[in-house]
Every structure is written in structure tokens, then in C-alpha cells.
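Researcher: We're teaching a course module on how sequence relates to structure. For the next exercise, students receive a sequence and then see the predicted structure as C-alpha cells, so they can try to spot secondary structure elements on their own. Here is the exercise chain.
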Amino acid sequence: EPEGNMVCFRYRPVDDAAQARIRQALVRNGSFYLVQTRRGGQLWLRTTLISPATTEADLNALLDAIRTAA
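Model: And here is the predicted structure for the students to work with:
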């Protein structure tokens, strides 16, 4: 069982500026909303899984959108 509903991650192997650009592209597109946070001196992307209706297909679509933005 998960202990939380926030997931922090980085698209690798890109730098902090690329993380920020990926986030901006997704937010601007309107398909997904990610926030950013700093951890260990690096910029991380973060999503919060709140809706019980979120499916594996939704998460795969998020990953596809991230890959496209990168």
C-alpha cells in the first residue's frame, strides 16, 4: 500500500532547465498539471494522485506527454 499520493520524479538525463521546460509545456498544453520542487539541490517534477478514478492509462498518457515535451 502506498503511504502517500505525491510522486516526485525527474526526466533523465536532462538538467534542471529541461525539467522546468517540460513542466511549462505540459501546463501550457493543459493536458496535465505538474508542480516542481527542489530536492537535493535539483529540480524535480511532482504530481499528486488524488482521484480514485485515475487509471494506469492516465499515468501512461502522462508519461507520453512528458516524453513528447522533452
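Model: If you want an answer key for the exercise: The CA atoms of residues 30 and 66 lie 13 Å apart. The helical segments are 16-29, 56-69.
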